[in-house]
Structures are given as structure tokens and as C-alpha cells.
Amino acid sequence: MKRAWPLALLLSALSLSSAARAAEDVPPSFGESIDVRVVNVEAVVTDGQGNRVSGLKPEDFRLRVDGKEVPVEYFSEVKDGEALAAAPEASRAQPPVNAAGGAAVQGAAEGRVGTYYLLYVDDFFSVPAHRDTVLKALKADLGRLGPDDRMAIVAYGGGRLTMISNWSGSPADLGRAFDRAIARRSNGLLRRSERTTSDNDEAFAEMAANADGDSPPDSAQPPGLSDLQRLYATDLVRQVKGDVQAAVSAMRAFAAPHGRKVMLLLSGGWPFSVQSYVARGDGALPTKENLPGGEEIYGPLARTANLLGYTLYPVDVPGIQAGAVDITSAGQQTTAQLRAGRGRHNPLANDPPPSLETPVDVGGGNIPEEEVEGSLKYLAQETGGKPILNTNRGLALALARDDTRSYYWLGFSPSWKHDDKRHEIRLEARRSGLKVRTRTGFLDLSRKAEVAMMVESALLFGSPPGALHMPFKVGEAVRSKRGEVEIPVTLGLPVDLMTVVPDGNKYTVQLELRFAASSADGDTAEIPVVPVTLTSDHQPAPGKVVKYETKVKLHGKADHMVVAAYDPLSGKIATAETDVKLP
After folding, report:
1. Are 539 and 501 in contact (CB under 8 A)?
2. CA neighbor of 514 nearest in space, from 549, 564, 444, 450
3. Residue 519: its pLDDT value, please?
């Protein structure tokens, strides 16, 4: 069973010089760094029968942040992919104000509104046959994309995150990208084998204890997981967190588009409560292991989506699992059910887009099924999206597109404190009987947390957009008798990164270094923050680099290393990465 492993850092004497080698150009990027000033709130409004309600105005909404009503500063209605025109000036004797007494409300430009679909393919947990069924259905549905819609495709199988397609509106180009996604290796069968092995080990241990007469009665059993279950659960938490972080990195890398942003999250089976999932419902009692709960595991993904304006539509790649009951399996299929994508509906047929307002239900009391669907429901609820479950998985693009064609767009400008606190958003319709579905909060991200996320993104996706490049060289790794591996490292810290401060007769620079390492199996190291003080008798010249030497000590295996240098005063970051060979 794989174990998580730490990354230790040893610093050697540093050499500070104004090296003659010039810094290289910043590589082409496919996105931009985070720059959030306005919090966007996309809202779907329905009546008591679940029908969409149109024609509402800013004064028809009440927006609360942390329980306090705030002004709606930006407002538009998008109907069938078109931003509706504002009311004629002649009909407005006075400038419009929102219900909370704020300034004039600004709207989006009139005309077509495109949707950016970021498709995240989970190759770490997905079984190939299940994943390919969903990918083939998505490929067949590419004709549903509008002229202003775009799609990008990324995939994660452990270790590095792969960009299969940048933003594209070409069905032909995207079709070829889907073929590449289908051709990729998927590791879901290995994940299932790990689960089966854990269950078999647990069953064998119980049989052995019963045969020896050592098994205590049920009333004497300690609550929670056994030692074997706890071992598997700990690894499962680490694996899911790695997958979640990959999805976070994907959103950050594709944060730039200014429009409706949707992530189609193809999940291969992430349980909400790992403890309940491993124990099949028997481990829900308080235990001593203190495994992280669902909100702790999936919260970073939901908060990043809300920060960047993404609505999540998680797709249930496994579909109906063994032990669960599809409500249409008894043969009671109506035309409405078929159009909703349930039962034996052909996901490749060009039926009218079904509705997501009434999701498919699952019976049978299947704990693993409930936990897997629980994570999808949580992510959708937190970001204002909808989970696409069971047999609806073949209609993912049609369902998401239909759900995002008509909505209200509201915006407000909070007083950013950059303190990493989450703030609750509550949007209500002032008219009785109307239901509003939208995101539930936003994160006031600190610069420190943003830099840490950028480094983690670089670990999975390469150098983050906007980061300076720096030379990076590793020496020959040496393994100690205790199994540790020490790797000499030489960096070329860009002078353009630094804020140089005069200090008497010298010049001083304060930087932070972060190292991270990963393996193709999905193992990642913790990222220590190392403060570095550089001094020199003369001011380093712009466009040059400063040579810096150190040593990195690894426990475990790794095949890739990332380092980031951050200047807290300028806010600039430089990154570098390289493959490593361990003895």
C-alpha cells in the first residue's frame, strides 16, 4: 500500500553573484493569474412547478453576504444564450438604483453570451469502459456548442495534469482531442483492485479472529474503522485530495475567460465520507482516526470555483454501481423519463435537451453509491450547478448547456481583506413562491494562499501563467543508509523577480522558496516554505540571474521536482521544474 511521504529541505552555503546569463523569456501561457475584483453570482430562478422565471429586475432580488444585505452593482438577464437589452432610457426618469440603495446598476453588453466549458477527465479513479462511454457521448454532442461557446479539455491520471486541448470552438479539433482523451490510460481498475484487496484483507482478518476465538462480541467492538480499514482509508483520502487539487489547478490555469464558465467534472468515484465509504456505513460513529470529512476534502475545489466564477456540473462516470437500483429498471418508462435521459435512453440521440430540475434518484441503500453521489451533490450545490447522475451521464453536455442558457447574472464588489476567510452568499427573490439556485459563498484569498496554490498548480500543470522562468539544475542524487535521497540543486534566481533594498553599504533581498516533488503514481510531497535572505556589496543588474545553491532531501520516490521563488514585496513569482532520477 502506497504511503504519503514528506519532503525535507537542507540548505547549504549560498553563493551570490551577478551571473552573466540573462533570464529567459516568459513561456507562452494559456491563462492569466487570478485577478478578482467583482464577485459574480449566476442565478437560476424557478417557480413552484420548476419552470424558469424570466423578466426579473435587480430590485426583485435580495443579496446578502454574511447575513448583511449588499447592493447589486451589476445585473443582466441572459435568455437562451442572449444578454437582454437594458430598459430604454426614456422609460427611466431617474438612474437605476438597487434595492439596498446602492449606486447605478451596470449590465452586460447586449448580444450573444458564450459559455466556456472546461472538461476535467478523472483518469485516476475512472474505469476505462465507463469513462469512454461518457467521452464518446460528449464527442457526439459537440454539435450542441454555440458559435460563441468554447471548450478546453484536461486530464489527470496521477502525478502530472495534462492539457489535451486549449480553448477551442472547432468541433473537428475538439473531436480529435476527445480521441486523444479516450486513448489515454485510465487507472480506475487499479483503484478498484485496491478496494477489493482491502475488503479481502479485512474479511480474512475477521475469519482468522473468529477461528481463534479472539473476536469480541459486536457490543465490545470499538467504534470506527479497523486498523486495516484505517490504512486503506488514509491512502484513499490522499488520492482523492490529489485528484481534487488537480481539478483546482485546472481551473486556475483556465481562469482567464470573461464569460459564463462551466466545469464538467468527470469524477470516477470520489466518496464524500471516506470513513463511511470504507466501512460501508458501519464506520460512521466517532473514531480516533480523525479522517477529514467531505467539506474539508472538497471545500478547496468549491471555493476555487466560486472565486473564479466557475459553476460545477459533476458527472457520475461510474453510473449505477452494483447493489444500487435504477428507478427505471422495472420497465416503467415514460416518454418524459426517456427525454430526461433515464433508463435505456440512447445518449447519442438528438432529443431535445432534458431538464436537470428533477434529478434521477437511486435506491437500494448502497453506501458506496450514496457516498460517491454525495460528493457530486455537494460540489454542485456549493457552486450553483447540478449533479449529473447515473444514466444521465451520457447527456452531460446537453444537460449543462440547457441549464446555463438562461440565467441572471449579478455582481458586487466586496471589500477585499485577503484574509483567507469564506463569506456566505445568500440570494433570494423578493417575490414569494420563487426558488433561486446559485453559489453559496466566496473566498477572500490571501496572497500567501494564492502563491501556495500557484506552486501546487505548477507541480501538476507546469509553470503557472505569468510566472518568471528561472534556470534550474539538479546534481547527482545520493542515497543514505537510512534510505533518504539527497539532491544538490542550483537555481538562477531572476533579478527581475527581486525587490532590492539598500541596507547600509549593502543590498538585501528577502525571498521565499517552495519545493515540491511528485511521482507518476500520484504521490506528492508537502511544500515547505523556506525564507531566504540574499546580500551583496553591489546592486544586481536587471535581466540577470543570481546563482543559488542548496540541497533537497527526499523520503520516498519522486520523478519530478518543482521549485518556486516568491518575492513578498513585489508579489512576483518565478518557477522552474525538472525530472529527477533517483538511485
Report:
1. no
2. 564
3. 76
